[in-house]
Amino acid sequence: MTTTVHGPIGCGGDSTTVRFVSSDPFVAGAAETCAVVVRCRNSADVPPGAPPALAFAPPAPNPSAGPVRLRYTLSRPGFVLLEVLDVQGARVRTLAREAREAGPNEVAWDGTDDRGRALPSGVYWARLVAEGRTLRRTVLRMR
Q: How many domains is the chain built from?
């Protein structure tokens, strides 16, 4: 079942008509339409553009023999922990352990551990802990 909403964003004047269309992908041509009149009282305008959600972009370049960019977006300011783990799950490098502003952020990993030693080729995980969540991305290191 798929439902789409057709109508203006926000209310104009006292009321706005919104049309809902439901269709079943397994029954061709089966669609139901419902029109609803929405009364607008004491409404407030919402600024365009939703706030960003917590996101962790794929590492780039990946695979890599050089530095890897790790990009993430915070929906609100807060504490961030960004680490690189080996395949056994052991931390090999801490890239960020600090408060960061909301919005896009970027950290580069040069393929070394916390002591500055070059790590061997292999599979690693970048782990981002922020906003009460843990997100992971796979990084393939080549030498």
A: 2
